[in-house]
Design a protein that fits this description.
about 425 residues; alpha/beta; seven-stranded mixed β-sheet; five-stranded parallel β-sheet; 14 strands
Length: about 425
Amino acid sequence: MKYTRSRLLIAPLLLALVAAACGDDDTEASAGGDSSGGGADSGEICVDGDTVTLGFLNSTSGVMAISEQTVRDSLMLATDEINADGGILGKQIEFIEEDGQSEPAVFAEKINKLLTEDEVAAVFGGWTSASRKAMLPVVEGADGLLFYPVQYEGLEASENIYYTGATTNQQIIPAMDFLASEGVETLFLAGSDYVFPRTANKIIKQYAEELGIEIVGEEYVPLDSDDWTTQVAKIAAAEPDFVFNTINGSSNVGFIKAYDEAGLGPDNSPIISVSIAEEEAPAMGVDLTGQYAAWNYFQSVDTPANAAFIEAFQGEYGSDRPTSDPMEAAYTSLYLYKALVENAESFCVDAVNESADGVSVDAPEGTVTVNGENHHISKTGLIGQINADNQFDVVWSSEEPIEPDPFLEGYGWWDPTEE
């Protein structure tokens, strides 16, 4: 059944909102919304009937499809499992699926449709920060809920978004701590030219200075470009101890190809990536054995919940399908929504938010817990090294879940005003 909310006429503002969201590569202010329209009188749960309709919004076409298709698949799996177990508050999940087409403006358009026309109770999806920033003013304007499953640059918190991927202090900072522990003295930054890489690299540069690591180069290529020849030549000339890769989507294929053709590899120029996981590694067309990635989940994580997750996913999609961090975070996001709703005993946005703090889920990555102030979750930081099977051997761990600090308030070296 449709979610009961006031239908807001936000479509006329959509183009302006998308332009604002996509045009600022260094947005650092909180985007907190006033979630005042989703409340309900005592006894109301905002969804009637025996079903609840959700929206799934992922790119199944365009440059990001290489990554987002697997997120879609994990959402489908979680839906089937939850429905088989009785649904959410006894209601079976129905879903409406939309293709974000790897375009931020399309994500904004589609989430507007899902929330104001289809009146879904919550939306799950997005990958790039550009897509999230395009959706943010729309989901706040409609007083809806978005569950965003991918690691990102932080510096954001919204009452209308739950962030189930890592924020900066749970991925970027652990990666830098690992590099420092390995004695790295020089670092080259390579990223796609949009919000996440540029903001992440701003943070990396400040922390590198704190750690005594010299940044010897910084290069960007548009997200839809696969030509990294010129930039890789600069990396080869700089001879850094490590390359920090914040490239996203299929552009990674062009980067790794140029890297290999330049004679670079883990022995003479190792890479640590934050967007290459088990799903992407075999698609690079080059043997990545020995390279590194920073995530909060690997298929190799040894927990009973992960063993069950892998068995279920491969049982549904084939034994050759790997599991990876973003898809696990998406899978977890649907179970987290179920836990939030059932804890609140309501689908209403206000009720869910008011009781969110401390809600935990036994996820494949381990137990995750919601921070009610910033809507992020605790996550264990992991560094993995790719082996010959395109799996990751964990070589570094934070051991315990890291509490989310999206604005880096606990890090004295961080200055948001510094370029």
